[in-house]
Amino acid sequence: MRIIYCDSVFDNKIIEPDYEKEKEAAINAGFSFSLISFEELIDGKITRSLRFVKEAENTEFGMYRGWMLTPNQYEKLYNGLLKKNIELVNSPIEYTHCHYLPNSYAKIVSKTPKSNWTKELTTESILKLTKAFGDNSIIVKDFVKSEKHHWETACFIPNASNSENVLAVVNKFIELRGESLNEGLVFRQFEELEYLTEYSKSGMPLTKEFRIFFANKEVVKVFNYWDEGVYGAEKPALEEFIAIAQAIDSNFFTMDVAKKKNGEWIIMELGDGQVAGLPDNADKNEFYTHLKEKTSLKTGS
Ligand SMILES: Nc1ncnc2c1ncn2[C@@H]1O[C@H](COP(=O)(O)OP(=O)(O)O)[C@@H](O)[C@H]1O
Ligand SMILES: [Mg+2]
Prior knowledge:
Layout: E1 2-6, H1 20-29, E2 32-36, H2 38-42, H3 46-49, E3 60-64, H4 71-82, E4 86-88, H5 92-99, H6 101-108, E5 115-118, H7 123-131, E6 138-142, H8 151-154, E7 156-157, H9 163-177, E8 185-189, E9 195-198, E10 205-207, E11 209-215, E12 218-224, H10 239-245, E13 252-259, E14 265-272, H11 284-299
Parallel strand pairs: 1-2, 1-3, 3-4
Antiparallel strand pairs: 5-8, 6-7, 6-8, 9-10, 11-12, 11-13, 13-14
């Protein structure tokens, strides 16, 4: 299995510094790696982006670990690597399954906040969707990301029936996302989560959340999602989440889970494992060692 990282921009032979420690851990665990140029990939210059990726003699599995890609960019990366005999662990469809919340919503519906979505950014469709939540609190995000660090102004809507406030928050969200807006809008019922602390960087409320990495449907590692706050020794019970993971159409993904104030654990969101960050607190050697175990079983590489 080859891990594909992004280069440092200034030097195509040097890894992006944010992934240096991951790369060392990957090598320690027995993976090989190649570097691509992220900038050239998103510019559509795929051949140039992959010019330092050595072609595999026999088909080899690959895993990208880097910045988020749109499904279109991911598909270009996937096909470019295939030409070099490297097959990324997730097909473009599998990537999009966890990347876009609406694509996997049906698979997690029993354990995740009630949600609806639209690609139409009109007042009419926004109010139609938000009315479905009555006077409950909701949050807004796009198909991939929220503006959680602008919690009060562009994420949290205290009362979904207050049209004026709904439009003010949603418009601020659209403005902040700008060109980066992914596909459309998602509205989600707000759930009271167990409070951890206030985030020092933005003042948003941090709640008890964990990030579970799954490879080949098995748990690789459970991380505290935040690097701040006192988590205590408590961890989520994994059985139910492992059962749900079996139906997710992806070979490498994350499941972020949170604890409600009433003690119930819910799924916040899924993500493709290739573009999901490891928390700063993560033991990278342990992560890559487990990843090697879980991926060697199926791929033999
Ligand atoms: N429905 C919800 N109920 C309560 N808190 C939520 C809800 N949705 C999001 N949050 C809070 O906002 C944070 C960001 O939401 P998330 O969907 O993970 O967006 P992002 O993709 O930007 O990380 C979550 O980690 C959680 O703390
Ligand atoms: Mg998140």
